[in-house]
Amino acid sequence: MRVSLFVTCLVDQFFPEVGLSTVSVLRKLGVEVDFPADQTCCGQPAFNSGYASEARDLARRFITIFENSEYVVAPSGSCTSMVKVFYPDLFHNEPQWLARAEALAAKTYEFTEFLVNVLKVEHLGAAYGGKVALHQSCHLLRELKVKTEPQCLLQSVKGIELVQLDHAEACCGFGGLFSIKYPHISGSILQDKIDSIRNSGAEVVVASDVGCLMHIAGGLSRQCVPSRTMHIAELLAQREE
């Protein structure tokens, strides 16, 4: 089996360790991983800002680069959702591009979704000691309908103590450009999430989207909450020393 890694902008620019952990886990499972070097943004920021024409240009480029891959995997629910859910919407009036977008969407997966639903793997031999809480990111949960897969993977980690967040499925307030356009609303939503993390006693907050984790980490740091964030791929790459 061969996978093309779609690394996403935030991982590429700010969290390269997440990409490395994703590759590490996949290769441990015997998956061959390649990285198309020409890849750039999937077009989500432009699409969310109402610039449909610019988003289509980026989508066409993305489709051309990835459409010959056996599978495409991304450590991000939001960017995966852009490809799987919104590329077909972008090309609903262009039959040829619509067919290509739908073909790519059918073989594009978020990281945990791919592990559980395609590879049929839940036990990865990972080990991590400590209290861990899962934040369910919005795009992953609501658009991709991926809910139990991250939980199943975390439950198999040796030594882990999973703790439940109050309102675990509530938004963290990031929402990409939403947090910039509406900072006061974003900050208020984030505060609810910070309060739930503090109440849970979690040492680590795990999610499948680095945008959420970046937003939450900023709130934790500013309020001196002794918890840290970690992408689920990083945790699943952990091994006993």
Summarize it.
This protein has about 240 residues and is α/β, with parallel strands linked by helices. The protein contains 13 helices and 8 strands. The chain folds into 2 domains: about 1-115, Rossmann fold (3-Layer(aba) Sandwich); about 120-235, Rossmann fold (3-Layer(aba) Sandwich), CATH 3.40.50.1860.
List the helices and strands and how they pair.
Elements: E1 2-5, H1 9-14, H2 16-28, E2 32-34, H3 44-48, H4 52-66, E3 71-74, H5 77-90, H6 95-105, E4 108-110, H7 111-118, E5 127-134, H8 138-143, H9 148-155, E6 158-163, H10 178-181, H11 183-200, E7 204-207, H12 210-222, E8 228-231, H13 232-236
Helix pairs in contact: 4-6, 5-6, 7-9, 11-12
Give a verbal description of the structure:
The protein is of the alpha/beta class and 241 residues long. It has two domains: 2-117, 3-Layer(aba) Sandwich (Rossmann fold); 122-236, Rossmann fold, CATH 3.40.50. It is 52% helix and 15% strand. The chain contains 13 helices and eight strands. The chain has helices at residues 9-14, 16-28, 44-48, 52-66, 77-90, 95-105, 111-118, 138-143, 148-155, 178-181, 183-200, 210-222, 232-236; strands spanning 2-5, 32-34, 71-74, 108-110, 127-134, 158-163, 204-207, 228-231. The strands form two sheets. The protein has a four-stranded parallel beta sheet, with helices on both faces. The chain has a four-stranded parallel beta sheet with strand order 6-5-7-8, sandwiched between helices. Strand 7, helix 12 (210-222) and strand 8 (228-231) form a beta-alpha-beta unit. Helix 4 packs across helix 6, helix 5 (77-90) packs antiparallel against helix 6 and helix 7 packs across helix 9. The longest helix has 18 residues, at 183-200. The protein starts with a strand and ends in a 5-residue tail after the last helix.
